[in-house]
Amino acid sequence: MTLSVDVKRLIGSMHLDVSFTVEAGETIAIVGPNGAGKSSLLRMIAGLSAADEGRITWNGADWDDASSGEFVPTEKRPVSYVFQDHALIPHLNVLDNVAFGVRASGGRRRVARERATHALSDVGSLELADRMPSELSGGESQTVAIARALATKPELMLFDEPFAALDAGARAQARRLFASMSNESLARILVTHDAVDALTLADRIVALESGSIVQVGTPSDVLATPRSHFVAEILGFNPLSGELHGDQLSIGAMNLTLGAHEVSDGPVIAIIRPRSVSLHRTRPEGSPRNVWNTAIAAVDRTSDRVRVQLGAPLHIAVEVTPAGFEALATGVGEELWASVKASEIAVHPA
Amino acid sequence: MSRRHRHDARTPIVILSLGIVAVAFFVLPLVALAIRVPWSSSFDALGNDATIEALGLSVATSLITTVLAVIFGVPLAWLLARSNMPGRQTIRGLCTLSMVLPPVVAGVALLASLGRRGVVGQILDDWFGVRLPFTMPAVIVAQLFVAMPFLVLTVESGFARSSTTVEEAARTLGATPWYVFLRVTIPATRPAIVAGAVLTWARALGEFGATITFAGNFPGATRTLPIATYLALETNVDDALLISMLMVVLSLVILVALRGRWVGAIGGAR
């Protein structure tokens, strides 16, 4: 089972132009900023909209071929779609929501309810069967939406930001459920803007920006060499656009010296990991290059590391330990010195 | 107690007095009607064959009108709310114009189209020998023409508010567009359909101008309750008062049965 997507579509003023494949048993994550075309892409795969150009095939059979006009309607594709707002049918109780797919494809009510009961117990939510959608919490309604999608025995499942609308507890549970339903005969596409989801749940990551794919790779590939502003940003790195001349990188008024690299001169994206920057109260000795004077723009203590946002001339985030931050004893607005080793700056052609 | 007083004190006196005048304006005619109704002879008047006939005709025609309005109005509302057909605004305007038209004008327009010498009526007569005016079906046509827009507009706003995401989810679960319409869209819009049907029914029940113009005034065939009331005013005022009271009670029953429901279905989410 292979889904092959090679489509173009004009969305507003943006040209969506993507091509990739998904195999049975595989989970791919589509990541990118809002408006990158992620949801539009899912809708085309589901058959809720059509491609302007190109084709979508499933095991070689056309689902959507713009040149021949072949278009398999949504209900004929072995696809199920889990919407961000779950889209439960408001006037049906949970059991009948889950049974809906089997009923819609001509199954008898008794058979449909049996299948629904199985699907609900598979996701561990049989006790919700008699409730109405309006009586469910966000996490419960998400679980029901997944059970409903599973009950039709799809070969391809599409998830549009499935965890975005959930609170932290429900999100962790939904992630576990998502991870547990992976199987050999099911292909899954997960649209997300959350780096953790993409890295932990997907076999491959497709990074989309302004309608184009900027990177495809395994989570470790993407971690090692993030190729776009967005990917780097969601991974918590500091993507910086700059101009490269030999080992000199200019970013606005700032000049940094790089270590050995194989990128040719011209516009580049440089990535500085937040943990590779060190902060000092006074100008550090013995490290002549890549040292600059700056001020603290913001401090975020929500995680186990303190994330310090630096002001001009280089607006980057730096992570230090709480103890390290206390030793600096500085707050917002205070001046300090920052330094980064030449070898810690990675560059990619822009 | 003191809380109520403080609340009253905050209501500007101008608003309060104008509001009371408005309430009196609505309540006074109803009270007067109830006072003048000859309750003692009510059984005689209501047992009168002509009244019974008019009542039966009104109830039958208005119910048939309501059913027809739902059958044709719901699809029209869906097209107006959901399709991309060109000229939707114009079509909506044309289809709801009769709501604001003077009913007599509606009757004249119906005569011009479906009357014996009307544009379509002539063909019906020549080809099929069908003459619509001054028959019971004509009563229904007149009622449908002026009352269906209430259903169309109410249901259209219901369709516009029901979630297209839920419908798309249903499609991805294997439902055809027709199945989605029947099993997802219609149930989700049911409050609006019920409200629209009741408004249509009430409007059809009270229809006078278009009916008397297009369908005329034949006892047993086209003399509906409102027409009977109007005629009774000239011969037997007590009968007119009684039939009027009967219709007030009917309207009140509708309003109580719906309570705030139709307001909710038209005005806001429920």
Low-confidence stretches of chain B: 263-270
Which runs of chain A of at least 5 residues are low in confidence (pLDDT < 50)?
none
Radius of gyration of chain B, whole Å? 22 Å
Overall geometry of chain A comes to: globular
- Taken as a percent bin, the fraction of beta residues of chain A is 25-35%
Strand order of the largest sheet of chain A: 7-8-9-3-10-11
Count of alpha/pi helices of chain A:
9
DSSP strand count of chain B: 0
Strand content of chain B: under 5%
Verbal overview:
The complex is a heterodimer of chains A (350) and B (270). Chain A has 350 residues and is of the alpha+beta class. Chain A has helices at 38-46, 94-104, 109-122, 138-151, 168-180, 195-201, 219-224, 229-234, 322-328; strands at residues 2-11, 14-23, 27-31, 53-58, 61-65, 70-71, 79-82, 156-160, 187-192, 204-209, 212-217, 238-245, 248-251, 254-257, 266-272, 277-280, 291-300, 306-310, 317-320, 335-340, 345-349. The longest helix of chain A has 14 residues, at 109-122. The mean pLDDT of chain A is 86. Chain B has 14 helices and no strands. In chain B, helix 8 (136-161) crosses helix 10. Chain B is mainly α and 270 residues long. Chain B is globular, with a radius of gyration of 22 Å. Helices cover 79% and strands 0% of the residues of chain B. In chain B, 37% of the residues are buried.
